[in-house]
Write a structure and sequence with these properties.
The chain is mainly α. It has one domain. Helix content is 47%, strand content 5%. It has helices at residues 33-47, 56-68, 74-84, 105-119, 126-142, 148-172, 178-188, 211-225, 230-247; strands at residues 2-7, 88-89, 198-203. It has a 3-stranded mixed sheet with strand order 1-3-2, with helices on one face. The longest helix has 25 residues, at 148-172. It is globular, with a radius of gyration of 18 Å.
Length: 295
């Protein structure tokens, strides 16, 4: 299943941020990556408490403004804007298919444990899952003799998992949450997607997985697929939230074995270096080049 988002090349506006600003998102400490993810969505929800977006174009524009508010210079803001307009393909729903072969074995086990803990949401409550994820983080943090760049990916993924579990458990359990209300408002407007402007393409074919687990998994997998770089992962999370709830109904009893998701795996990690003006044809690769962390 493929969906093409037509989005205006958004301008930047000022949005106050409570977390520290940065020139390069690669400098964010790994265990703070999830905090930036959740604060961005919390601020988006705050914006929509009193006024709902007209369509999804405005949602993306607003998120660009929020994420850009952490940037200290124009190059960083250009990188954020470019990250928002990349082709996003959710082609992996299992951690073993997302990380590279040469990743440290301990970090691989950590990522797979994160996945199994998230999938336990159907038998455990939110706090039990968060507690399990926190223990995993403690163990990896204290483990020595791991390449620093590999350890960064593992700890950043755990940070995203913890914060994403908090965020989406709250959002999906509350029909009146501002993000749900904003999504409903933008979908019933009859103009979910803006025409004749920048394309963002999302491809996803769902396995039989509860919605809350799937969105949280996409958050973590997006972080791993973008090699620990948080900015494009935030936008991937936004598209997963909107796409899954608006366009996809997961059947209660599938009639055939679920198929695997189509995927385009980035070959390198994004950086904050500005690039040329994006074309109107979506790319199968991330918009920026990795600087230090492995997949």
């Amino acid at each position: 299943m493929a969906l093409k988002f037509i989005i205006l090349f958004a301008g930047i506006f000022s949005v106050n941020a409570t977390l520290p600003s940065f020139k390069d998102a690669n400098d964010i400490p790994p265990e703070q990556v999830g905090l930036y993810h959740t604060e961005a969505f919390d601020r988006l929800a705050e914006m929509y408490t009193t006024e709902k977006p007209k369509n999804f174009h405005y949602v993306v524009k607003d998120m660009i403004g929020i994420v850009s508010s952490y940037c200290e210079d124009r190059a960083c803001r250009r990188s954020v804007r470019k990250s928002a307009f990349e082709k996003v393909e959710f082609g992996k729903t299992h951690m073993r298919d997302a990380y590279p072969e040469d990743l440290d074995l301990t970090v691989k086990e950590h990522l797979e444990s994160i996945e199994s803990t998230i999938r336990s949401l159907d038998t455990q409550n939110e706090q039990e899952v968060i507690g399990g994820l926190t223990l995993l983080q403690d163990t990896l943090r204290e483990t020595a003799d791991i390449k620093e760049s590999n350890k960064y990916v593992g700890l950043a993924a755990g940070s995203i998992a913890i914060e994403s579990t908090k965020l989406w458990s709250s959002v999906l359990s509350n029909p009146d949450h501002p993000l749900n209300a904003a999504k409903e408002a933008s979908s019933i407007s009859g103009n979910l997607f803006h025409r004749n402007l920048q394309d963002i393409e999302v491809q996803v074919e769902l396995e039989q997985t509860p919605q809350n687990q799937l969105i949280i998994l996409f958050d973590v997998l997006g972080l791993v697929l973008f090699l620990g770089f948080p900015i494009p992962a935030i936008f991937a999370s936004l598209y997963a939230f909107y796409f899954l709830q608006i366009e996809v109904v997961v059947p209660q009893a599938p009639t055939s074995k679920p198929s695997s998701l189509p995927s385009s795996l980035p070959s390198s990690k994004p950086s904050n270096s500005p690039s040329s003006k994006p074309s109107n044809s979506p790319s199968s690769k991330p918009s920026v080049t990795p600087s230090r962390k492995p997949l």
